User: What shape does this take?
Amino acid sequence: MNFLERIFARLRQDGSATVLEEISSEEAAGVTGAELLELVEQARAFCAGIGLKPGDRCALLAPNSIRWAACDLALMAEGVIVVPLYTRQAPAELAAILRDCRPSRIFCGDSSLRDGLAAAWPDAPPFSLLDEVFSRPPSSVPRPLPPKQDADFVTIIYTSGTSGEPKGVPLTVGNLNHMLACTAARLDLLMGDTSEPDRVFHYLPFNFAASWILLLTCLSRHSRLSLCTDLAQLAEGLKAAAPHYFLNVPLMLERVRAKVEGHIRERGGMVAALFTRAWQGYLRRYRGEGRLFDTLWLSLANSLMFPSIRLSLGPNLKALICGSAPLSLETQLFFRMVGIPVLQAYGLTETTGICTLDDPRRVEPGRVGLAVPGIVMQLGENNEILVRGPNVFPGYWNRPDKTAQVLRDGWFHTGDQGEVNENGDWRIVGRLKDLIILTSGHNIAPEPIEAMLALQIPDAQQVLLVGNDRSFLAAIVTGVPSREAIEAALAVVNPQLPHYKQVRAFYVHPEPFTLDNGLLTANGKLKRDAIAARLQAPIEELYRKKDA
Assistant: This one.
């Protein structure tokens, strides 16, 4: 039984139970397994009616919704290769992607998305709105699923990374068969021996590999997946969903932590004092430097304060899952202190979203867990992480040169630097192409230093290091932090670092790096080359003054 057959069987089994719902500011609207299958049959009837054939490519440009999931399942059931697109991406960028994959049809969530894309690509193939897709009655007799081979393409997910060059990543039936079995097994460990459905909250766009993997995993399990369709109402949606777990990016968890700590500071008095003593004591105990009264403060906080923090995030919450970028150690420890474990995952689109995932029974803070079963990972030159296994993609769409660069001797070269301990737990150090090489010849991974500084500067939006072909490192700090706060942070961080890793100068840039100004990728990673080009003048001036 392949992954799609398992999903359809699960939906039939949960025919009368709600499996998917949308939570908006007004209300929650859900569908049962049987109702979702009916929507899938409607979409399949539409696909057959317009002549889509197995092996055709079809783009899907729409925000997360029940109909998005139904359309995706229908296209896969018809053997059509789905190309999911990001609704916040500029129409010109979307047009470049679509010219590369040449879809037979573009499904759009609404007319504004269609019109923007049509203006950017006058020669686009036919469009269909989701309203049209679900306008036809389903077949009176459900159509069987056609047979699928492991090598058959299921999707092409485009990833630009920080370089901005779109690359299509085809994923196969075999990739999905293996990965969904692995994610389901990890969630079995988290949920334990229970007959109740997983309650899962979700807000990340389905065009990202890990987000899509979670969708398919939930549909293949006894789950109720709640989609937040209004990010402005994220807190309200989370409260309504009352999940057991949900997927996050580090930025979201950093914001949650900052909000909790800010609320505690506002209350002040004994509440703030107790939290500070408990937090400092917890950090000392983690470092093996515990003091006599640390246990007392932690016990008091766990009785008087931490239960309300846990309740504010959800009464049923068993864990938070985090991926896409390394999470700061302090933030992971913060959530663990209040009683909410954070399970980290590591992977790339090219590895079907996941390579490692924390085992809920043994989480080592600061690391991203063990390789999931069937996947082999090792370190190559410059501590680059190499991956081999049934999760690895077959090669980039229309990019044989790029494929040859990353698939060599049976290994996928991730471009990530890492390290692994004696227990097999991995830690991600940074990206090879992000290494800063000083004129002294020292190679420096900027991410760990950036994270250290960001923790010491609460008013900073982002911290980015520069220094390629320079004699020392400098920092770009966005937001409105004071110079005194940055200097104080450097006074704390620099003594912990060897001389060549110390930051000798900084520049404050009030405008944060965002997706809208073109300085962040779609999943929140810094476009370092674009930032360096945009801020070339102030960076040159910074070094000129320091060298003078």
Observations:
- The mean pLDDT is 91.
- The chain has three domains: 3-174+204-209, 250-315+317-432, 435-547.
- The first helix runs from residue 3 to 13.
